[in-house]
Amino acid sequence: MMNATALTDRLAHFIAERALPPGRKLPSERTLAAEFGVSRSSLREAIRVLSSQGLLVARHGGGTFVAGQDSAALTDPIAEALLPLAPLARSDAGYWKDVAEIRSSLEGDAAYFAALRANEQDRQRLRQAYLEVSTAPLDDLAAQARTDAAFHLAIAQASRNVVLRQVMSGLLRLLEISIADTLRQLYCLPDIVAALDRQHRQILDAILEGRAEDARGHANAHLEFVQRRLLDLEEAPARARRAASV
C-alpha cells in the first residue's frame, strides 16, 4: 500500500513527466485515484500537500490545476533537480541533517528579504499561513506538518526571490521525507508546539513590521531550536538503552 509521502511524490512526478503547463487542469480525482491505485481521500491529501507548496491550485467545485508561473511550477529545473534525491532521503537516517543545514543557511535570508520586499498580498498570505499553522489540530499530525511547511514557504514566496522559493520548497519536501517519523514525535509534544507557535509569531511580526535583521534572527533561532529538539528525539532511544544497562 502506497504511503502518503510516496503518493505525493508519485503525483508530482506524474505532472512533471507529462510537462503539464501552468493552468492545465488535472484529471478527475476518480481517474487519478484509479491510476495510482489509492483511495480518493489519500489522493486529496497528496493534492493538499502539493497545494501548500504552491505547486497546485485546488478550486472548490472546479477541480485542481497546475499552478501558474507566479507560483512554484512543477516544471522548474531546480525543483526537478531535487526530485531524484527523495529515495536517498528515505534510505539514509542521517540525511535530514544535511538538508537542515542547507535550509538554515537559506531561511534566515528568506525572512530578511521578506521583511524588505513583501507586498500587501504577501503579508496577507503570511497572516493566513500563520493562522492555519497556529490553529491546526494538535491531534492531526499531518495538518501540523503541512501547515508548518506552508508557513515557511509563504515566507520564501514573500522574499520575491524565485530561486530561493523553489529551493526552499524542495528542501522542505526532502526534510519531511527523511524524518517523517521524528517530525510526528515532535508534533506530539504540547510544549514544543507552543514554543514553535511563539517563534512563528516572532518571525511573522518582524516581517510584517519590516524589521529585516530581527526577522533573520528569529528565523535562525527557530531553526536552531527545531534542530536541537530533533537531535534530542533521535538520541533518546540510545540514552534510554544506556540508562537501562546501568
UniProtKB/TrEMBL annotation:
Pfam families: FCD, GntR. The keyword DNA-binding applies. GO terms for molecular function: DNA binding; DNA-binding transcription factor activity. It comes from the Bacteria. The keyword Cell inner membrane does not apply. Gene3D superfamilies: GntR ligand-binding domain-like, Winged helix-like DNA-binding domain superfamily/Winged helix DNA-binding domain. Keywords: DNA-binding, Repressor, Transcription, Transcription regulation. Residues 1-69 form the HTH gntR-type domain. Transcriptional repressor for the pyruvate dehydrogenase complex genes aceEF and lpd. This is Pyruvate dehydrogenase complex repressor. It comes from Herbaspirillum rubrisubalbicans Os34.
